[in-house]
Design brief:
single chain, alpha/beta, 29% strand, globular, ATP binding
Length: 283
């Protein structure tokens, strides 16, 4: 079972006498959670994400409970001697998949992100947007327990941005954790999660929810056997209200609605979807 990833008293500086970029960082990332990291340029957001991803080691403090982690960096190195499909297949085997499973996952993610037509294109010849899609695909193909996204939506077209949002919902619904930085404050703003701000080398918890009040949301009404609890995956991505015994209204960001429905319909208990409709008016 995946453990909580913890940073205790973590600090990071570059060079023996360099200034501290981060210091005294205490953070727990629990399975099934979504965490947004904010801060001004140069505040240390990317350094924090690199520590979480295991790319950098702390100068002081401890990191414990390391899960299987995948990382989308702010800048993806495109000049690698692979085609898109070969690179993803290779990364899949590094993550522990068989070569056949890795090739299958590579094809699926290239298709989902709208870059399947470039599967045989060398990475060095891909456009910036297509390279970014490959960078996202390499992080998702092995279903990581922790997904770390540093400006991962930058450079993606609208369809690919929506697909990445759905992938984030899938990871959290299945019990994985996602930590992300994005320049757009509306990104995943209606999703359930926590927001932290990096300021003056320290980490401050800002809010329990990412939310802005006016994002598009969907209400899913479901009926199940009285006394049965909703699937944990549904509760990770949706706010639930019990209308009567066995009957619930689940409110979820519109981008997550298909993930919620799939979670409900594949649960061990048979949950009957009564209705699906857009939420009207303010929450």
């Amino acid at each position: 079972m995946q453990r909580e990833l913890r940073l205790d008293g973590v600090g990071r500086r570059y060079g023996i006498r360099g200034p501290w970029v981060l210091r005294g960082i205490d953070l727990g990332v629990t399975p099934g959670t979504l965490v947004r990291v904010e801060g001004t340029n140069g505040s240390g957001k990317s350094t924090l994400l690199r520590l979480l991803a295991g790319i950098d080691a702390p100068t002081e403090g401890r990191v414990t409970g390391r899960p299987r982690t995948a990382y989308v960096p702010e800048r993806f190195p495109p000049a690698l001697p692979f085609t898109a499909a070969a690179y993803l297949t290779h990364l899949g085997t590094v993550h522990g998949l068989s070569r056949r499973a890795a090739a299958r996952a590579a094809g699926q993610w290239l298709e989902r992100l709208g870059v399947a037509a470039h599967a045989s294109t060398p990475l060095a010849r891909l456009s910036k947007g297509s390279s970014q899609k490959v960078a996202v695909a390499q992080a998702l193909l092995a279903e990581p327990e922790l997904l770390v996204l540093d400006e991962a939506w930058t450079g993606l077209d609208a369809d690919a941005r929506g697909e990445l949002e759905r992938a984030v919902a899938e990871r959290t619904a299945s019990g994985g954790a996602v930590v992300f930085v994005d320049h757009d404050p509306r990104r995943l703003a209606d999703a359930r999660g926590a927001t932290y701000t990096v300021r003056d080398g320290a980490l401050h918890r800002r809010t329990e929810h990412l939310g802005v009040p006016d994002g598009p949301r969907v209400v899913v009404r479901v009926q199940g056997p009285p006394g049965d609890v909703l699937p944990a995956g549904a509760l990770r991505i949706a706010a639930a209200e019990e209308d009567r015994p066995g009957s619930y209204s689940l409110t979820v960001p519109a981008s997550h609605s298909d993930v919620l429905l799939r979670t409900l319909l594949t649960a061990g208990t048979r949950w009957h979807v009564v209705s699906v409709h857009a939420q009207e008016g303010p929450r």
